[in-house]
Design brief:
26% of the residues lie in helices and 20% in strands. It is an alpha+beta fold and 247 residues long. The chain has 2 domains: 121 residues; 60 residues, no CATH class. Helix 5 links the parallel strand 5 and strand 6. The radius of gyration is 25 Å and the shape is extended. It binds zinc ion. This is Protein containg Zn-finger domain associated with topoisomerase type I. Keywords: Isomerase.
Length: 247
């Protein structure tokens, strides 16, 4: 697992700063009584003028107008920020496979930011063999996590009707009011006071992650003191199950 540094790039940055970071330092040379300016590190970063390509921007504007205030559209979403790995210790290679991959667009519920639909604009590069392999991998990632992914052929521009027809089977824009209200879908305000693995026989399995859940206690609110099972991957996974003394 030599790739685990990928998970913590801040670590390398800290090491670099310890040894090589150059700063503009005024140093007084006592013998000559002069002030010497050390050269300042010049960062080579420049702002891109093509953050979204014309096709991406055309698509983005129409998608945003269709989704209205009920949904929000994110662009260039890193897969590792959208998905997590259920058993990170034994699945490090699966994490590394998604750290450098990005999704073109993500539609989320505006009140909960729950991801609803991923969208990829497929240009000619998607016919190259390594790109096909990458697309197949990404399709499987979405399938595993039960998030729909839509492939849209890349065009110079799009019409509203065209995009509406593509996304409406996946997102019910017109009837979005009927869905769960924000109050219902809000996760319970629970502070975790215990994170012990429950005894293997009793511990239920997290339906999302497939790993034994842990016993926790509610520390605030009207359910204070109550025990429940939570997923060890919390907060990335918010699955809970009731705890019963009898079982
Ligand atoms: Zn879980």
């Amino acid at each position: 697992m030599t790739d685990t540094l990928n998970e913590n790039p801040g670590c390398l940055g800290a090491i670099f700063n310890l040894f090589g970071g150059k700063k503009k330092v005024k140093r007084v040379d006592s013998s000559a009584d002069t002030t010497i300016d050390e050269p300042e590190e010049v960062f080579p970063y420049r702002l891109r003028d093509d953050f979204l390509s014309p096709a991406e921007f055309s698509f983005y504007r129409i998608l945003s107008s269709l989704t209205g205030t009920e949904r929000v559209v994110q662009s260039k979403v890193r897969l590792a920020d959208l998905f997590f790995v259920a058993r990170p210790n034994e699945n490090a290679k699966y994490y590394n496979k998604i750290t450098a991959k990005h999704l073109d667009f993500l539609v989320c519920d505006a009140t909960t930011m729950k991801p609803l639909l991923g969208i990829e604009l497929d240009d000619a590069s998607h016919q190259r063999s390594e790109r096909i392999e990458r697309d197949e991998f990404v399709d499987k990632v979405f399938q595993a996590a039960s998030l729909p992914l839509l492939h849209v052929p890349n065009q110079r521009s799009y019409s509203t009707r065209e995009i509406d027809a593509l996304i409406s089977p996946h997102i019910d824009i017109t009837n979005s009011h009927k869905e769960t209200s924000p109050a219902e879908s809000k996760p319970p305000a629970v502070q975790i006071s215990e994170n012990k693995p429950a005894s293997p026989a009793a511990a239920p399995i997290c339906p999302k992650c497939g790993i034994p859940m842990v016993l926790r206690i509610v520390t605030q609110g009207e359910h204070k003191g109550k025990k429940f099972y939570g997923c060890p991957n919390f907060p990335r996974c918010r699955e809970v199950k009731p705890y019963s003394n009898q079982s």
